[in-house]
Design a protein that fits this description.
- The chain is an alpha/beta fold and 223 residues long.
- The protein has one domain: Spore Coat Polysaccharide Biosynthesis Protein SpsA, Chain A, CATH 3.90.550.10.
- It is 35% helix and 20% strand.
- The protein is built from nine helices and eight strands.
- The strands form two sheets. Strands 3, 4, 5, 6, 7 and 8 form a six-stranded mixed beta sheet that branches. A two-stranded parallel ribbon has the order 1-2.
- Strand 5 and strand 6 form a beta hairpin.
- It is globular and about 55 Å long.
């Protein structure tokens, strides 16, 4: 799976692709297909914390844009990597850029593995949650849920940062909401940082959050 993710990253416009890990098995696997690997400390609680260490090790310039492509996204198109990097470059007031897509299946609204996001008028995140947000008072909680016209948005776990932000992020204290939801982006919101989102221009593909996802992705890749 990591090799598929790496190959998607190489197909993007990134000038350098690095696999960051604290696991010797991942390091050996990555090196077997020619990837550049950065070994990090084991105590990191999130991917952003790990990237902050990588940025420090490589001493990237403050204005360099770094994209965090998670290792469980083997089908994510490289065009979206380019999109999220470009979105951050276009929004100087944003500390982080990421993506969303419209939820079209009602059951996904209630699936805790599908992270939802609520946006303000300018496309900045108000909140992320594993719970349904916004909560449609007149429909949710009833025995039958009708088709919903009200838009709900799924967060796509692809982030772009500037090196300067990553350096600062490592100094931010963990927040209660981040720990409760197990969503690292909530630490940034808790500390008043701004996260801009754009709608994914193409289908983000199927990520791997559960064993059922793994079965589906294996079937897709075999085709």
């Amino acid at each position: 799976m990591i090799q598929h993710v790496y190959e998607r990253a190489v197909e993007s416009e990134a000038t350098e692709v690095i696999i960051a890990t604290d696991d010797d098995r991942i390091e050996q696997s990555a090196k077997s297909f020619g990837a550049k690997v950065c070994m990090t400390r084991r105590e990191h609680l999130s991917g952003t914390d790990r990237l902050a260490e990588v940025a420090s090790i490589f001493q990237f310039n403050d204005d360099n844009i770094i994209v965090n492509l998670q290792g469980d996204e083997p089908c994510l198109p490289p065009q979206l990597i380019n999109q999220v990097a470009a979105d951050l470059a276009q929004h100087s007031k944003a500390d982080i850029a990421t993506l969303y897509s419209r939820i079209t299946q009602v059951e996904q609204i209630f699936d805790p593995n599908v992270v939802k996001v609520a946006l303000d008028i300018d496309g900045y995140a108000l909140y992320f949650s594993r719970a349904p947000i916004p909560w449609i008072r007149d429909h949710f909680g009833k025995e039958s849920i009708p088709d919903l016209d009200f838009p709900h948005y799924r967060h796509i776990g692809l982030y772009a940062y500037r090196t300067s932000f990553l350096t600062h992020y490592a100094e931010l204290s963990h927040s209660v909401i981040e720990q409760a939801e197990s969503l690292e982006q909530l630490r940034a919101l808790f500390h008043g940082k701004r996260i801009h989102l754009s709608e994914a221009k193409i289908n983000p593909g199927h990520g791997v959050d559960t064993m059922d996802d793994l079965v589906q992705v294996r079937s897709l890749l075999e085709q």
